[in-house]
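Most newcomers find our protein records easier to grasp once they have seen one. Read left to right, the backbone structure tokens trace the chain's path through space. Once this layout is familiar, the rest of the handout is easier to follow. The record below serves as our worked example for the rest of this section:


***
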Amino acid sequence: MSEECCGPDEPRKARTIQRVELKRPHAAGDSCCAPDTARECEALAPHDDGDACCGPALPSRNSVGGEESELRPAWWRDVALLPSTLSGLFLVAGYAFEWAGVGIPALVLQWAALLAGAYTFVPGAIRRVIRGGLGVGLLMTIAAIGAVLLGHVGEAATLAFLFSLAEALEDRAMDRAKEGLRSLLSLIPDAVRVSRLAGDTTIPAADVRELDILIVGAGERVATDGVIVDGRSSLDTSAITGESIPVDVQPGDVVAAGSVNGSSTLRIEATADGRDNSLTQIVSLVEQAHARKGDRARLADRIARPLVPVVLIAAALVVVFGFVVGDPSTWIERALVVLVAASPCALAIAVPVTVISAIGSASKFGVVIKSGEAFEQLGTIRAVALDKTGTLTRNEPAVVDVLPAVGISREDLLSWAGAVEKTSSHPLAAALTAAAPRSLPATDVIEAAGHGITGRVEGRVVRVGNVRWLTPGALSAAADEMAEAGMTVVVVETDGMIAGLIGIRDELRPESAETVRLLQDAGIDVTMLTGDNERTARAIATQAGITDVRAEQLPADKASVIEALAATRPTAMVGDGINDAPALATATVGIAMGLKGSAAAIESADVAFTGNDLRLIPGALAHARRGRRIMTANILLALAIIVVLFPLALFGVLGLAGVVLVHEIAEVFVILNGVRAARRPAPLRALAATPEPARV
């Protein structure tokens, strides 16, 4: 099982999966998995199956590209189950001979069952003791040896069989939880065609380097992140983002590793190496996630770690009591039963199996949770703050209203504005240029930062700017109406006369209002944060169904708002831009939206969505809340087993065989209950069934 509460040990069974290599080298003293999380290194210690102690260690990682990998074999072909299987068969045969009155064969078979089962945990327990560590395996070893010395070989064999079986089942549960994660790497093809000066050549996907030109044929997978330089097609990104319909792409569009190309060949310029792309980094983050334990994991550890020596002391006191009252044989036997009854097997795995199952499952529907701590905190969220631009909206401003002055045509107004804005880098310039019905040349173009732009078009002096720079005059009332409707008002002036108004708006995502409704139905308060002016912000918020609006917020202001919200209740911040990074870092849980999110936002966040559908937010929160409930139930069950079995063992109500049976059945139940956390919650099932509009 695992070593975290009791110290590392050599593995009983080597398990390897594909490795994710990140660019950032780990300096001496650096944390193993992520910055400022030194305790994560503990989780990277070798995995010991000899003690059902405190959860899994991280799997070993080998190279991306498939040189080394392992899928979980079917249970009838899993050699890890062989010792337990042999132990069970020998045990059943031994009891059959005993009931038939054939003593010697029965004893031999029971000894065989004991040795086969003990092989899985006794060597590890001995090695740990030599290094000065204590563990649950030691409790089981002492109990088995004591039972043999008292002449109860059958009960010792039963203990060994059930404990080894529980270990093997836990291993399979952990492997199953990680299987979805390992399968993500299978989305990267083994080889890829690359364009070279001498012609096209095929190379291993792991050898792809940034700026290589990849040739991706119809139906082939994209080996690494890149930008399309030639070709038009559609991409199936469902395995990466959870979006169930293909996305149309063309030159200039960004594509993610693991996407499946549609019907046309694409030429893609790689923007990441084959060993370090968005997909491999997702896998790396999820592998490392359970290293940073949440509150429940730490609670389980705090209970489990001291419990082993406490149980040993309690058993020793029971033995001493037996000598005091003059019945050492009876009380030694009870002491052995107490060792088993109070062992924290189920408690130790109550949280890790749940966390790994839930985080691994979340990665498959587009939610990357960076730590066990973040997963647990995600389940506590009672308020969500949403950035407006790029989160609630598409971050694609477009002209939505045009009001020319008397005597000016709509086409002329748009063409004049588009002409002077053609060379501008302002975010609204692209919208004006795209809306222009014809392309006109502009000369003497001068841009006034924060105000607007001036140029000469067809002999006219044209100025385009905001209402603070150019007063709308007779169109002031119309400008106010546009602003109330959530538009940014652009005023166009020609030769000193107001030529008209152009309304530009960054439209809401189609799922924004539904997402807000789902959050509110779940009892979660929703706040919108934006740097826009109050009127524009209110208009957009009204469309989305949000009443709590904080407008004209600088990055520091957003962080202050989040700090105030988080002081009263657990709060998640959802954003995608560099200006959201301080707020994401301040929130109880920071959530970075989509593959287009800035690197600063993704780095600051605790959770990252690989898709762009906002409905992932209520889905992820529901997934985390369900996982917390399962963890809580597991911890309570594990504690209840110890509390109930201890007095029954101490006063002789249950013997060794009975306690072992109840204890191991409870452990199996805890494992199976934890694996349930991998199930997709109802909001995410509904999301999969209702695809969002295709977009990149």
